[in-house]
Design brief:
11 helices; Penicillin V Acylase, Chain A; single chain; 8-stranded mixed beta sheet
Length: about 350
């Protein structure tokens, strides 16, 4: 049984300097990950799509674009290839089966915000995650959960703004459009001070794909942003809010023409959504770190339909939760039922 320890990368300087250092240190990992993009690899069609997205991305948030230029310099990869890495969610979001929770106000003992998720994906991805602590002269310091090239897959910044998320738009599959990749949008959001600024950024951004973002800040605000290409619906959490891998907002369900199949071990979003909602309700008014850890170690009603996934067919690669008021990121490796949570500060 391995301890809950992730490699921790640390960078300081300008966004471009940090990107160059990251690209140089991670060059081999970036190339290997690029060659293993799911469902078809980096095909001619996907390269063309990456070029379309880069034309939009290069005019977006300057610190994010500067970081990508630095990664290109450090790794030797082209900006088209790096954009393709950022588009992992848009290329193959059918593989992610995460479950997320947000709580604030009367749902928590101290009325402070909390957000959490399991990061469930294909078992071969288990060795890849790392943590990254970055402090640039243009953005707030951040602590992020990363995959190669996806330097901000989730995380928290020095102001206490935190983000975790689940994928959505899978039944039927909502096709991506040219725009800002989901993983790049996360990096931009973590450059904001609070939920209000993050919401404003998302609303003026042309998003490429689908997601259910959970954002939280030190003021106790928690929001869920359900999105499909070019459309976002924002729901404020007053006490408890949960999501699996489908939309719950009526407007976006209609726009996506969502039609969910019955729950099974292959498609378990509805069972996990019901289970996480029931567990959160059980701990109402007492949702703190200990309660979250108990919830994410859940194995009822049976394997494959519960929260802690053991690889049938998806594996909980990691589970983490964030406490904005404390600027804390807590994470456990693999099967949550087997590991303690390690605590990190931004």
């Amino acid at each position: 049984m391995l301890p809950s320890i992730h490699p921790l990368l640390e960078y300081r300087g300008s966004p471009r300097a940090c990107g160059k250092a990251y690209g140089d240190q991670q060059a081999e990992r970036l190339r290997i990950f690029l060659k293993n993009i799911p469902d078809g690899g980096l095909s001619t069609r996907r390269r063309r799509y990456a070029r379309q997205c880069w034309k939009i991305l290069r005019r977006w948030q300057e610190p994010v674009v500067e970081f990508l230029h630095g990664v290109a310099q450090g790794s030797g990869l082209s900006l088209e290839e790096l954009t393709a890495l950022q588009l992992q969610e848009e290329y193959g979001h059918d593989h992610c089966h995460c479950t997320a929770l947000g709580a604030t106000g009367p749902a928590t003992p101290d009325s402070a915000a909390l957000i959490a998720q399991s990061w469930d994906d294909r078992p071969p991805l288990y060795p890849w995650p790392q943590l990254l602590r970055m402090c640039t002269d243009a953005t707030p310091a951040t602590l992020t959960y990363t995959m190669p090239g996806l330097w901000a897959a989730a995380g928290i910044n020095e102001h206490g703004l935190a983000l975790c998320w689940t994928t959505s738009g899978m039944r039927p599959k909502v096709l991506p459009q040219p725009g800002i990749p989901t993983y790049t949008l996360i990096a931009g959001i973590l450059g904001c001070r609070d939920c209000s600024a993050a919401l404003a950024l998302v609303r003026r951004t042309r998003n490429a794909g689908c997601f259910n973002f959970f954002i939280a800040d030190t003021a106790g605000e928690v929001w869920v942003l359900e999105a499909m290409p070019g459309r976002v619906e924002a729901v404020q959490c007053r006490d408890i809010i949960t999501r699996a891998n489908h939309y719950q907002c009526a407007a976006i369900r209609r726009a996506a023409k969502q039609k969910l199949p019955p729950s099974s071990t292959k498609w378990n979003s509805q069972s996990r959504a019901a289970r996480i909602a029931a567990l959160a309700e059980r701990f109402r008014s007492h949702i703190d770190g200990r309660a979250v850890e108990t919830i994410y170690r859940d194995h009822a009603p049976k394997e494959g339909l519960c929260i802690c996934q053991h690889g049938t067919p998806h594996l909980t690669l990691d589970c983490f939760y964030m406490l904005p008021a404390k600027k804390e990121f807590r994470i456990a490796r693999g099967y949550v039922c087997r590991h303690d949570f390690a605590v990190y500060q931004v």
